[in-house]
Amino acid sequence: MKQNIIVGLFGAALESVNYGCSALAYAQLKVLQDISDELDIHMQYWIFSDDSIELIEQVKNYLKIDDLKSKYIVRIKTGLQGYKRLKQDIMSCDIIIDLTYGDSFSDIYGKKSFFLYSLPKIIAIKKSKPLIMGPQTIGPFYNKAVRMVAQYIVRRCNALVVRDEKSLECARSLTNRRDILVTSDLAMNLPYNKEKYDVKEKGKLNVGLNISLLLWNSNTTGGNIKLNCDYQKLIYSLLHNLEELGAATHLIAHVYDDGYSEHDLANDIAKEFENVIVAPHFKSPIDAKDYISNMDVFIGARMHATIAAFSSGVPVIPTSYSRKFEGLYEVLGYKHCVNCVSLTTSEALLEIMDILNKLDELEADRKIALEKALNMNRTYSESLTNIIQSLSSEVN
After folding, report:
1. Is the distance from CB of 35 to CB of 385 less than 8 angstroms?
2. CB atoms within 10 A of CB 77
3. How large is the average pLDDT for residues 59-82?
4. pTM, whole model, 2 decimals?
Protein backbone atom coordinates (compact mmCIF):
# COMPACT_ATOMS: atom_id res chain seq x y z
CA MET A 1 0.00 0.00 0.00
CA LYS A 2 1.33 3.42 -0.96
CA GLN A 3 2.21 5.93 1.70
CA ASN A 4 -0.22 8.81 1.98
CA ILE A 5 0.86 12.43 2.45
CA ILE A 6 -1.56 15.34 2.84
CA VAL A 7 -0.24 18.52 1.24
CA GLY A 8 -1.91 21.81 2.23
CA LEU A 9 -1.65 24.55 -0.42
CA PHE A 10 -2.08 28.20 0.56
CA GLY A 11 -1.78 31.38 -1.47
CA ALA A 12 -2.91 29.57 -4.61
CA ALA A 13 -6.37 29.47 -6.17
CA LEU A 14 -7.49 27.50 -9.19
CA GLU A 15 -10.57 29.68 -9.71
CA SER A 16 -9.15 33.13 -8.99
CA VAL A 17 -10.35 36.11 -11.03
CA ASN A 18 -6.62 36.78 -11.37
CA TYR A 19 -5.26 34.16 -13.74
CA GLY A 20 -1.76 34.84 -12.45
CA CYS A 21 -2.77 33.32 -9.12
CA SER A 22 -4.45 30.34 -10.74
CA ALA A 23 -1.48 29.77 -13.07
CA LEU A 24 0.68 29.31 -9.98
CA ALA A 25 -1.81 26.85 -8.50
CA TYR A 26 -1.96 24.76 -11.68
CA ALA A 27 1.82 24.74 -12.00
CA GLN A 28 2.45 23.85 -8.33
CA LEU A 29 0.01 20.93 -8.52
CA LYS A 30 1.77 19.68 -11.66
CA VAL A 31 5.12 19.77 -9.84
CA LEU A 32 3.68 17.85 -6.89
CA GLN A 33 1.99 15.24 -9.07
CA ASP A 34 5.27 14.62 -10.91
CA ILE A 35 6.97 14.11 -7.53
CA SER A 36 4.18 11.76 -6.44
CA ASP A 37 4.72 9.67 -9.56
CA GLU A 38 8.49 9.69 -9.18
CA LEU A 39 8.46 8.63 -5.52
CA ASP A 40 5.48 6.30 -5.96
CA ILE A 41 3.60 7.79 -3.03
CA HIS A 42 -0.01 8.93 -2.81
CA MET A 43 -0.63 12.61 -2.15
CA GLN A 44 -3.83 14.24 -1.06
CA TYR A 45 -3.92 17.88 -2.15
CA TRP A 46 -5.88 20.27 0.03
CA ILE A 47 -6.07 23.66 -1.66
CA PHE A 48 -7.28 26.32 0.74
CA SER A 49 -9.44 28.41 -1.56
CA ASP A 50 -13.00 29.00 -2.76
CA ASP A 51 -12.68 26.75 -5.81
CA SER A 52 -15.92 25.14 -6.98
CA ILE A 53 -16.46 21.40 -7.06
CA GLU A 54 -16.91 21.59 -10.85
CA LEU A 55 -13.54 23.24 -11.35
CA ILE A 56 -11.80 20.85 -8.97
CA GLU A 57 -13.08 17.95 -11.08
CA GLN A 58 -11.84 19.63 -14.28
CA VAL A 59 -8.37 20.16 -12.83
CA LYS A 60 -8.22 16.58 -11.54
CA ASN A 61 -8.90 15.30 -15.03
CA TYR A 62 -6.46 17.69 -16.69
CA LEU A 63 -3.55 17.00 -14.33
CA LYS A 64 -4.46 13.34 -13.76
CA ILE A 65 -4.90 13.92 -10.03
CA ASP A 66 -7.29 11.66 -8.16
CA ASP A 67 -7.30 13.32 -4.74
CA LEU A 68 -7.75 17.11 -4.82
CA LYS A 69 -10.04 18.92 -2.41
CA SER A 70 -10.92 22.57 -1.90
CA LYS A 71 -10.74 23.33 1.82
CA TYR A 72 -12.14 26.08 3.98
CA ILE A 73 -10.21 29.34 3.77
CA VAL A 74 -10.38 31.75 6.67
CA ARG A 75 -11.74 35.27 6.26
CA ILE A 76 -11.43 38.12 8.72
CA LYS A 77 -15.19 38.18 9.23
CA THR A 78 -15.26 34.51 10.30
CA GLY A 79 -13.54 35.45 13.56
CA LEU A 80 -12.52 32.91 16.22
CA GLN A 81 -14.53 30.02 14.80
CA GLY A 82 -12.87 30.45 11.43
CA TYR A 83 -9.46 30.54 13.07
CA LYS A 84 -10.15 27.31 14.99
CA ARG A 85 -11.32 25.52 11.87
CA LEU A 86 -8.28 26.69 9.93
CA LYS A 87 -5.97 25.50 12.69
CA GLN A 88 -7.61 22.06 12.74
CA ASP A 89 -7.19 21.67 8.97
CA ILE A 90 -3.54 22.71 9.11
CA MET A 91 -2.95 20.22 11.92
CA SER A 92 -4.31 17.47 9.66
CA CYS A 93 -1.76 18.23 6.92
CA ASP A 94 1.68 16.66 6.74
CA ILE A 95 3.25 19.60 4.92
CA ILE A 96 2.19 23.16 4.04
CA ILE A 97 3.23 24.91 0.81
CA ASP A 98 2.38 28.61 0.66
CA LEU A 99 2.83 30.68 -2.52
CA THR A 100 1.21 33.86 -1.13
CA TYR A 101 -0.33 34.42 -4.58
CA GLY A 102 3.13 35.04 -6.00
CA ASP A 103 3.68 38.62 -4.92
CA SER A 104 1.58 39.22 -1.79
CA PHE A 105 4.24 38.57 0.85
CA SER A 106 4.48 42.34 1.02
CA ASP A 107 2.28 45.26 2.01
CA ILE A 108 2.22 46.63 -1.54
CA TYR A 109 -1.48 45.68 -1.61
CA GLY A 110 -2.10 46.87 1.95
CA LYS A 111 -1.46 45.65 5.49
CA LYS A 112 -4.75 43.81 5.95
CA SER A 113 -4.06 41.39 3.09
CA PHE A 114 -0.53 40.74 4.30
CA PHE A 115 -1.61 39.85 7.85
CA LEU A 116 -4.45 37.64 6.62
CA TYR A 117 -2.14 35.72 4.27
CA SER A 118 0.43 35.38 7.05
CA LEU A 119 -1.97 33.66 9.45
CA PRO A 120 -1.68 30.12 7.96
CA LYS A 121 2.11 30.42 7.92
CA ILE A 122 2.20 31.42 11.58
CA ILE A 123 -0.14 28.57 12.57
CA ALA A 124 2.03 26.05 10.70
CA ILE A 125 5.15 27.35 12.45
CA LYS A 126 3.51 27.33 15.89
CA LYS A 127 2.23 23.78 15.36
CA SER A 128 5.58 22.53 14.00
CA LYS A 129 4.17 21.65 10.60
CA PRO A 130 6.76 21.73 7.78
CA LEU A 131 6.23 25.06 6.01
CA ILE A 132 7.56 25.60 2.49
CA MET A 133 7.49 29.16 1.18
CA GLY A 134 7.22 28.28 -2.50
CA PRO A 135 8.63 30.42 -5.35
CA GLN A 136 7.47 34.00 -4.78
CA THR A 137 8.46 37.63 -4.44
CA ILE A 138 9.60 38.71 -0.97
CA GLY A 139 8.86 42.35 -0.08
CA PRO A 140 8.97 45.24 -0.26
CA PHE A 141 7.83 46.05 3.28
CA TYR A 142 6.78 49.61 4.06
CA ASN A 143 5.26 49.15 7.50
CA LYS A 144 7.36 48.28 10.57
CA ALA A 145 4.86 45.77 11.99
CA VAL A 146 4.57 44.05 8.60
CA ARG A 147 8.33 43.76 8.41
CA MET A 148 8.51 42.22 11.89
CA VAL A 149 5.94 39.54 11.00
CA ALA A 150 7.73 38.83 7.72
CA GLN A 151 10.98 38.43 9.62
CA TYR A 152 9.39 35.94 12.03
CA ILE A 153 8.10 33.82 9.13
CA VAL A 154 11.21 33.75 6.94
CA ARG A 155 13.40 32.85 9.91
CA ARG A 156 11.22 29.89 10.94
CA CYS A 157 9.84 28.35 7.76
CA ASN A 158 11.43 25.06 6.73
CA ALA A 159 12.29 26.18 3.22
CA LEU A 160 12.28 29.60 1.57
CA VAL A 161 12.18 29.88 -2.22
CA VAL A 162 12.36 33.23 -3.99
CA ARG A 163 11.93 33.94 -7.67
CA ASP A 164 14.38 36.81 -8.14
CA GLU A 165 17.61 38.29 -6.79
CA LYS A 166 15.90 41.36 -5.33
CA SER A 167 13.69 39.10 -3.24
CA LEU A 168 16.81 37.25 -2.14
CA GLU A 169 18.36 40.53 -1.01
CA CYS A 170 15.17 41.44 0.84
CA ALA A 171 14.98 38.03 2.52
CA ARG A 172 18.62 38.24 3.58
CA SER A 173 17.91 41.59 5.21
CA LEU A 174 15.43 39.72 7.42
CA THR A 175 17.38 36.56 8.18
CA ASN A 176 20.93 35.23 8.14
CA ARG A 177 19.90 31.81 6.82
CA ARG A 178 21.96 30.71 3.81
CA ASP A 179 19.70 27.99 2.44
CA ILE A 180 17.39 30.33 0.48
CA LEU A 181 16.73 28.90 -2.97
CA VAL A 182 16.49 31.20 -6.00
CA THR A 183 14.30 29.89 -8.78
CA SER A 184 12.01 31.33 -11.44
CA ASP A 185 8.25 31.62 -11.53
CA LEU A 186 6.35 28.33 -11.51
CA ALA A 187 4.08 29.51 -14.33
CA MET A 188 7.03 29.19 -16.72
CA ASN A 189 6.12 25.49 -16.81
CA LEU A 190 2.40 25.96 -17.45
CA PRO A 191 1.42 23.89 -20.53
CA TYR A 192 -0.28 25.37 -23.60
CA ASN A 193 -1.68 24.42 -27.00
CA LYS A 194 -0.89 26.91 -29.75
CA GLU A 195 -3.20 25.12 -32.19
CA LYS A 196 -6.33 25.81 -30.13
CA TYR A 197 -6.79 29.33 -31.53
CA ASP A 198 -6.54 30.59 -35.11
CA VAL A 199 -6.65 34.32 -34.44
CA LYS A 200 -3.72 35.91 -36.26
CA GLU A 201 -4.46 38.60 -38.82
CA LYS A 202 -2.55 37.55 -41.95
CA GLY A 203 0.07 39.97 -43.24
CA LYS A 204 0.05 42.09 -40.08
CA LEU A 205 2.11 42.36 -36.93
CA ASN A 206 -0.11 40.76 -34.29
CA VAL A 207 0.45 42.55 -31.00
CA GLY A 208 -1.00 41.23 -27.76
CA LEU A 209 -1.71 44.05 -25.32
CA ASN A 210 -2.66 43.36 -21.71
CA ILE A 211 -4.13 46.40 -19.94
CA SER A 212 -4.21 46.40 -16.15
CA LEU A 213 -7.32 47.83 -14.47
CA LEU A 214 -5.21 48.18 -11.33
CA LEU A 215 -2.88 50.60 -13.12
CA TRP A 216 -5.72 52.21 -15.09
CA ASN A 217 -7.20 53.34 -11.76
CA SER A 218 -3.88 53.83 -9.96
CA ASN A 219 -4.38 57.57 -9.56
CA THR A 220 -7.70 57.11 -7.75
CA THR A 221 -7.17 53.98 -5.64
CA GLY A 222 -5.11 53.45 -2.48
CA GLY A 223 -2.15 51.17 -1.94
CA ASN A 224 1.53 51.62 -2.57
CA ILE A 225 1.52 51.60 -6.38
CA LYS A 226 2.90 54.94 -7.54
CA LEU A 227 3.43 55.49 -11.25
CA ASN A 228 5.47 58.30 -12.75
CA CYS A 229 3.75 57.89 -16.11
CA ASP A 230 0.08 58.50 -16.87
CA TYR A 231 -0.95 54.91 -17.59
CA GLN A 232 -4.19 55.77 -19.38
CA LYS A 233 -2.43 58.24 -21.64
CA LEU A 234 0.34 55.70 -22.28
CA ILE A 235 -2.15 53.05 -23.42
CA TYR A 236 -4.05 55.41 -25.73
CA SER A 237 -0.81 56.74 -27.24
CA LEU A 238 0.48 53.21 -27.75
CA LEU A 239 -2.74 52.11 -29.45
CA HIS A 240 -2.61 55.10 -31.81
CA ASN A 241 1.02 54.29 -32.67
CA LEU A 242 0.20 50.64 -33.33
CA GLU A 243 -2.71 51.71 -35.52
CA GLU A 244 -0.37 53.90 -37.57
CA LEU A 245 1.96 50.90 -37.98
CA GLY A 246 -0.95 48.86 -39.36
CA ALA A 247 -0.65 46.30 -36.57
CA ALA A 248 -3.50 44.06 -35.43
CA THR A 249 -3.72 44.69 -31.70
CA HIS A 250 -5.34 42.04 -29.52
CA LEU A 251 -6.53 43.31 -26.12
CA ILE A 252 -6.01 40.34 -23.79
CA ALA A 253 -7.34 40.41 -20.24
CA HIS A 254 -5.72 38.22 -17.59
CA VAL A 255 -7.75 39.37 -14.56
CA TYR A 256 -11.54 39.22 -14.48
CA ASP A 257 -12.59 41.34 -11.51
CA ASP A 258 -16.15 41.21 -10.22
CA GLY A 259 -18.22 44.08 -11.57
CA TYR A 260 -16.35 46.17 -14.15
CA SER A 261 -13.48 43.96 -15.28
CA GLU A 262 -10.38 44.28 -17.42
CA HIS A 263 -12.31 42.51 -20.16
CA ASP A 264 -15.00 45.21 -19.94
CA LEU A 265 -12.30 47.87 -20.11
CA ALA A 266 -10.85 46.23 -23.21
CA ASN A 267 -14.27 46.22 -24.89
CA ASP A 268 -14.75 49.92 -24.12
CA ILE A 269 -11.32 50.90 -25.43
CA ALA A 270 -11.72 48.78 -28.59
CA LYS A 271 -14.75 50.85 -29.65
CA GLU A 272 -12.43 53.79 -30.28
CA PHE A 273 -10.06 51.98 -32.68
CA GLU A 274 -10.39 50.11 -35.99
CA ASN A 275 -7.67 47.46 -35.87
CA VAL A 276 -8.24 46.33 -32.30
CA ILE A 277 -9.49 42.85 -31.45
CA VAL A 278 -10.79 41.90 -28.01
CA ALA A 279 -9.73 38.41 -26.98
CA PRO A 280 -12.47 36.19 -25.51
CA HIS A 281 -13.19 35.74 -21.82
CA PHE A 282 -10.91 32.80 -21.05
CA LYS A 283 -11.89 29.86 -18.86
CA SER A 284 -8.47 29.23 -17.32
CA PRO A 285 -4.86 30.49 -17.35
CA ILE A 286 -4.03 27.67 -19.77
CA ASP A 287 -6.78 28.87 -22.11
CA ALA A 288 -5.32 32.39 -21.95
CA LYS A 289 -1.83 31.06 -22.66
CA ASP A 290 -3.16 29.13 -25.68
CA TYR A 291 -4.36 32.43 -27.18
CA ILE A 292 -1.30 34.48 -26.17
CA SER A 293 1.04 31.93 -27.78
CA ASN A 294 -0.26 33.02 -31.21
CA MET A 295 0.99 36.62 -30.92
CA ASP A 296 4.05 38.04 -32.68
CA VAL A 297 4.86 40.20 -29.66
CA PHE A 298 3.18 40.80 -26.32
CA ILE A 299 3.06 43.95 -24.17
CA GLY A 300 1.63 43.52 -20.69
CA ALA A 301 1.22 44.94 -17.20
CA ARG A 302 0.03 41.73 -15.53
CA MET A 303 3.18 39.79 -14.81
CA HIS A 304 1.73 36.34 -15.38
CA ALA A 305 0.27 37.42 -18.69
CA THR A 306 3.81 38.36 -19.73
CA ILE A 307 5.10 35.02 -18.41
CA ALA A 308 2.48 33.22 -20.52
CA ALA A 309 3.92 34.95 -23.60
CA PHE A 310 7.56 34.61 -22.58
CA SER A 311 7.23 30.85 -21.93
CA SER A 312 5.21 30.10 -25.08
CA GLY A 313 7.59 31.50 -27.68
CA VAL A 314 6.44 35.11 -27.86
CA PRO A 315 8.81 38.11 -27.46
CA VAL A 316 7.51 40.14 -24.55
CA ILE A 317 7.69 43.75 -23.33
CA PRO A 318 6.63 43.87 -19.66
CA THR A 319 5.32 47.26 -18.51
CA SER A 320 6.42 47.22 -14.91
CA TYR A 321 4.73 48.73 -11.84
CA SER A 322 6.66 46.72 -9.24
CA ARG A 323 10.20 45.51 -8.77
CA LYS A 324 8.87 41.96 -9.14
CA PHE A 325 9.05 42.43 -12.94
CA GLU A 326 12.68 43.50 -13.10
CA GLY A 327 13.52 41.00 -10.37
CA LEU A 328 12.03 38.09 -12.29
CA TYR A 329 13.34 38.94 -15.75
CA GLU A 330 16.73 40.48 -15.04
CA VAL A 331 17.98 37.43 -13.13
CA LEU A 332 17.34 35.57 -16.40
CA GLY A 333 19.35 38.13 -18.37
CA TYR A 334 16.22 39.52 -20.04
CA LYS A 335 16.46 43.28 -19.64
CA HIS A 336 13.51 44.60 -21.61
CA CYS A 337 11.08 45.76 -18.91
CA VAL A 338 9.60 49.24 -19.35
CA ASN A 339 9.46 50.76 -15.87
CA CYS A 340 6.27 52.78 -15.43
CA VAL A 341 7.31 53.76 -11.91
CA SER A 342 10.40 55.68 -12.99
CA LEU A 343 9.69 56.70 -16.60
CA THR A 344 7.46 59.54 -17.77
CA THR A 345 4.63 58.77 -20.20
CA SER A 346 6.60 59.93 -23.24
CA GLU A 347 9.72 58.05 -22.10
CA ALA A 348 7.78 54.82 -21.57
CA LEU A 349 6.10 55.10 -24.97
CA LEU A 350 9.39 55.83 -26.72
CA GLU A 351 11.02 52.82 -25.04
CA ILE A 352 8.19 50.47 -26.03
CA MET A 353 8.30 51.61 -29.66
CA ASP A 354 12.09 51.31 -29.72
CA ILE A 355 11.91 47.73 -28.46
CA LEU A 356 9.24 46.90 -31.06
CA ASN A 357 11.82 47.75 -33.72
CA LYS A 358 14.19 45.09 -32.33
CA LEU A 359 12.00 41.99 -32.26
CA ASP A 360 14.73 39.66 -33.57
CA GLU A 361 17.02 40.73 -30.73
CA LEU A 362 14.14 40.43 -28.26
CA GLU A 363 13.37 36.86 -29.39
CA ALA A 364 17.02 35.80 -29.20
CA ASP A 365 17.23 37.08 -25.62
CA ARG A 366 13.92 35.40 -24.75
CA LYS A 367 15.07 31.95 -25.87
CA ILE A 368 18.24 32.08 -23.78
CA ALA A 369 16.41 33.46 -20.76
CA LEU A 370 13.63 30.85 -20.90
CA GLU A 371 16.14 28.00 -20.90
CA LYS A 372 17.69 29.49 -17.78
CA ALA A 373 14.26 29.86 -16.13
CA LEU A 374 13.34 26.23 -16.74
CA ASN A 375 16.69 25.07 -15.37
CA MET A 376 16.17 27.15 -12.24
CA ASN A 377 12.71 25.67 -11.76
CA ARG A 378 14.19 22.19 -11.82
CA THR A 379 16.12 23.06 -8.69
CA TYR A 380 12.84 23.75 -6.87
CA SER A 381 11.37 20.44 -8.02
CA GLU A 382 14.48 18.60 -6.88
CA SER A 383 14.50 20.35 -3.50
CA LEU A 384 10.80 19.65 -2.94
CA THR A 385 11.33 16.01 -3.95
CA ASN A 386 14.01 15.64 -1.29
CA ILE A 387 11.82 17.25 1.38
CA ILE A 388 8.82 15.05 0.57
CA GLN A 389 10.96 11.92 0.34
CA SER A 390 12.35 12.64 3.79
CA LEU A 391 8.87 13.34 5.09
CA SER A 392 7.45 10.14 3.64
CA SER A 393 9.88 8.09 5.71
CA GLU A 394 8.39 9.67 8.83
CA VAL A 395 4.71 9.44 7.86
CA ASN A 396 2.68 6.28 8.49
Report:
1. yes
2. 6
3. 81
4. 0.85
